[in-house]
UniProtKB/TrEMBL annotation:
The lineage of its organism: Bacteria, Pseudomonadati, Pseudomonadota, Alphaproteobacteria, Sphingomonadales. One of its GO terms (cellular component) is membrane. SUPFAM superfamilies: EAL domain-like, Nucleotide cyclase. It holds the Pfam family GGDEF. This is EAL domain-containing protein. Residues 300-553 form the EAL domain. Residues 63-115 form the HAMP domain. The chain crosses the membrane at residues 12-34. Residues 150-291 form the GGDEF domain.
């Protein structure tokens, strides 16, 4: 029976029995009892009896419901201990079947929601591969349970040029490409699973365009290298994406256990370091972690830590290298070259720390110091009556700052230095890629007297139309262009062509790292106006530079 029908029938029977009993008792009392007082007492007893039976009949369902609700409350409180599987108590199912069914359904839905949330929290929603959290947990278990007879291998895969796909085709197409990449990686991993292998490889997407593969059992290091090579080749094949043929690549880093680490964290760090070496080598390749890479990475970490405090500690200095006019033999300027007076390593050249400063963003702070130092040098030179231009490099990171040009102008204005004594050098790549708003700011500086130069020309990509339209005064040839002009006809042809190209856009040519009189003579014959290099002067610190240039002005030095 349902909906309390049995309870209702039970109560009706109980009430009927109570009525019959009361009738019999009352009838007997009136027949056999003759005294009025005894009849009154019997009537009271019969009435109390009837009231008692009626109360019991009415309270029975209430007490049953109370017990059922108490049991249901206990069941709900059990959720705090994580019990989502036990059914509702029997007393609830018997007395309140509809409520019991609803509670069971609710728990079923909660369990399903938790399972779905757990799946979302452990798997990547785009590729359906395990995510970082899942990968770390499972890889830890696999590494702990593997046999000591085998090595383990960690492969870190980072896609090359994936950002270009997102930028040109959109993030929806980028997600589709990630799915296709994941499928190719699945194929490579499946091909490496041997018969009877207990622990299978674990493939995951960590984040963005980063994937990782953990092989808990691998026989030789060469096997890991073979897999890494196969991955690089698989991803290098074009992807057909909605009518577009997309060419990307993959940089793969490889680390082995126990050679490069005995924990998942250590292996992932080592594989990540190796991957960046592969990417810096041009991408589309793999790299095995090594002690050399470990030492190089540690030096980088130490350099990053020291750079963050080097400006505050006053460890940077500027050296000035004179620039000589091949036409007049006069010193027509100088380039400020950064040096780091490291407390342990001594004087360090820019190549040992500038790339790291660029990567970490510390270059912006260093650049601010350089501008302030150049302004101070020019102010002092101006006070001595020397009006000679100083050039300094501007990092692309500095151009990203909205207030860069405002701060630059304010620094030289506060020092009382006219912009005509300032030359800003931009790398070829930065000059080609800077925005129109940055170009307008550079043009404004040039209109106010500053000189603008492109540094290291010949090592990057130049858009000739952009080069012609740029606000430009000088172009500095990269040292690699002129290194062999004394001995190589091809080198001379290339340099001559570059010089004619630069002259075609109306800019002056400056040759760096000129080391011999022979090089200077060839460059002068080709039409190069200015040189700097060891052929006539090494970089010098400020006081030495002022003394040297004063002497050079008196004697009109020339390299000819």
């Amino acid at each position: 029976m349902k909906d309390g029908t049995a309870q209702q029938i039970s109560n009706a029977l109980l009430s009927s029995a109570a009525g019959v009993a009361s009738f019999i008792f009352s009838l007997t009392a009136f027949i056999y009892i003759t005294s009025f007082n005894e009849k009154l007492l019997a009537s009271l007893i019969a009435g109390v009896f009837c009231l008692l039976i009626s109360y019991i009949a009415s309270e029975r369902p209430n007490s049953e419901s109370a017990r059922a609700l108490t049991a249901l409350g206990d069941r709900l409180l059990a959720v705090e201990q994580g019990d989502l599987t036990s059914p509702t108590p029997r007393i609830v199912r018997d007395s309140m079947p509809k409520l019991a069914t609803a509670v069971d359904s609710l728990f079923a839905e909660v369990r399903a929601s938790i399972e779905n949330a757990h799946a979302l929290g452990m798997y990547d929603p785009v590729t359906s591969l395990p995510n970082r959290l899942h990968f770390r947990a499972e890889a830890d278990k696999m590494l702990a349970s593997r046999s000591n007879e085998h090595r383990a291998a960690m492969l870190f895969v980072d896609l090359d040029r994936f950002k270009n796909v997102n930028d040109s085709l959109g993030h929806a197409r980028g997600d589709q490409l990630l799915i296709m990449v994941a499928n190719r990686l699945r194929v490579v991993v499946a091909a490496e699973v041997g018969e009877g292998q207990v622990l299978r490889p674990l493939l995951a997407r960590l984040a963005g365009d980063e994937f990782t593969i953990f092989f808990p059992e691998i026989a030789e290091a060469s096997d890991a290298e073979r897999v890494a090579r196969r991955i690089a080749l698989a991803i290098s094949e074009p992807f057909e994406l909605h009518g577009h043929s997309v060419d990307i690549g993959a940089s793969v880093g490889v680390a082995l256990s126990p050679d490069h680490g005995v924990s998942i964290e250590a292996l992932m760090r080592a594989a990540d370091i190796a991957m960046y070496r592969a990417k810096n080598g041009g991408g589309g390749r793999y790299c095995m972690f090594s002690d050399e890479l470990a030492n190089e990475h540690q030096r980088k970490v130490d350099t990053e830590a020291a750079l963050s405090e080097a400006v505050q500690r006053g460890e940077f200095v500027l050296a000035l290298q004179p620039q000589l006019s091949l036409a007049t033999g006069e010193i027509n300027g100088a380039e400020a070259l950064l040096r780091w007076n490291h407390p342990k390593d001594g004087l360090r050249m820019p190549a040992t720390f500038i790339p790291i400063a660029e990567q970490t963003g510390i270059i912006s702070e260093i650049g601010d110091w350089v501008i302030a130092e150049v302004a101070s040098m020019l102010a002092e030179a101006q006070a001595r009556g020397v009006m000679r231009r100083i050039a300094f490099n501007v990092s692309p990171r500095q151009l990203d700052r909205a207030d860069f040009f405002q701060r630059l102008r304010a620094t030289f204005s506060d020092a009382g230095v006219p912009l005509s004594m300032v030359e800003l050098e931009f790398t070829e790549t930065a000059a080609m890629e800077c925005s129109e708003s940055v170009l307008e700011e550079i043009s404004a500086l040039r209109r106010d007297g500053a000189f603008v130069a492109i540094d290291d020309f010949g090592t990057g990509y130049s858009n000739l139309a952009r080069l012609r339209a740029m606000p430009l005064d000088r172009v500095k040839l990269d040292p690699s262009l002129i290194a062999d002009i004394e001995t190589s006809e091809k080198a001379r042809i290339v340099v001559q062509a570059v010089i004619q190209l630069i002259k075609g856009v109306g800019a002056e040519i400056v040759a760096e790292a000129v080391e011999s009189v022979g090089q200077a003579d060839i460059l002068r014959a080709m039409g190069c106006e200015t040189v700097q290099g060891y052929v006539f002067a090494q970089p010098m610190f400020e006081q030495e530079f002022l003394s040297w240039t004063s002497n050079a002005d008196r004697h009109s030095r020339s390299v000819a």
